[in-house]
Input
Amino acid sequence: MSRSIIATDKAPSAIGPYSQAVRAGQTVYLSGQIPLDPASGQLVHGDIAVQARRVFENLRAVCEAAGGRLSSAVRIGIYMTDLAHFASVNSVMSEYFEQPYPARATIQVAALPKGAQIEVDAVLVLD
Output
């Protein structure tokens, strides 16, 4: 099976040796997004809700570059530095997804790149 690299300037460029996403067949594997502004490459300022919205907007841009929609995600991985923000992140996620929701794991981590409070990755299946 061939694979193709997905890239868009509407989401932050990778900050390491990885792609924004890789498509294999009808499946797209999206790398983790942290709340970086795509224009400046800087971390957005604000609370966890502001950061989560930026992350989901970045993921949406990569999904669209792949020819899909964020709502077609079948799996989401959420990594947070403080699970006390669980309810706030759930609230923001509900702005981007409707039932049936994707499968999801939420994991607390010690730290994330650039001091972010949240990182989200996804698996998308194209129609």
